[in-house]
Amino acid sequence: MNDTCDKLVIFLAKRDGIDKLVKTFQYVSKLVNWHVEATQPDIANRFKQWEVASGLSRKAFRTGRFLTGFNALRRNPGSTNTLRSLAVLSNAGEMVYFFFDHFLWLSRIGTIDANLAKKMSFISAFGESVGYVFFIIADFIMLKEGIKAERKLRRCKEESKSEEELEKEIKKIKGDRIMRLMAVAANVADLIIGLAEIEPNPFCNHTVTLGISGLVSAWAGWYRNWPS
């Protein structure tokens, strides 16, 4: 119990940890609002207000987040030319998303012209979606390389390595695979949310689709950020 509490404190001390928690509030309230809208309008309105407040607070909390793209490229540009190119494109798209998200937030709270909200939302969602496409491609490449590396380790029992060392390396590869699968799940979910803004359609814009996508993204991010 104490260990779980300690991990929760560490998780909520991170910017991403708080973001995933508030994102959970945002999309749970969205689904509850949709579920009770016809039968209990008063309760539905309360959850709608919670959804809007959560969304706006997340945008405020992400102020300056677009700069993390530079840091990501500096620390991990990629091991091959292909991965470096994908890293540049994915982080560039994410930086566009976070940068214009600032203006979307300011327009929605009335600090700047409210008429700019729709335009800022489109640009932000477009950059976000482009970034997620390249993040997904890069993760699939790394997943494929991880599978090859694991097969090689299992097939070629190096004499210089003990059984314990080999199992340790395989365990590390498996751990990385789980994290990348969580990243793919989150990015696909967020891509659906972005597409709902770029090109509205009955599937992506349905409340259930958006709600489930938001929760998948939040909980996959929760898993990835939870202290080991």
Describe the protein.
This is Peroxisomal membrane protein 11B. Belongs to the peroxin-11 family. The protein has helices at residues 2-13, 15-36, 41-61, 68-75, 81-108, 117-155, 163-198, 207-225. With 228 residues, it is an all-alpha fold. The chain has one domain. Helix 4 (68-75) packs antiparallel against helix 5 (81-108) and helix 5 runs antiparallel to helix 6 (117-155). The chain is globular, with a radius of gyration of 20 Å. The model has no long low-confidence stretch (mean pLDDT 91).
Please specify the SSE layout and strand pairing.
Blueprint: H1 2-13, H2 15-36, H3 41-61, H4 68-75, H5 81-108, H6 117-155, H7 163-198, H8 207-225
Number of domains in the coordinates? Answer: 1
Largest sheet: none
Q: Determine the mean pLDDT.
A: 91
Query: Kindly, what is the distance between the CA atoms of the first and last residues, rounded to a whole number of angstroms?
Result: 15 Å
Please bin the fraction of helical residues.
over 70%
Query: Radius of gyration from the CA trace?
Result: 20 Å
Shape: globular
Strand content: under 5%
Helix and strand succession? HHHHHHHH
Low-confidence stretches: none
Organism: Lupinus angustifolius
Transmembrane segments: 120-143
Pfam families: PEX11 (PF05648)
Keywords: Coiled coil, Membrane, Peroxisome, Peroxisome biogenesis, Transmembrane, Transmembrane helix
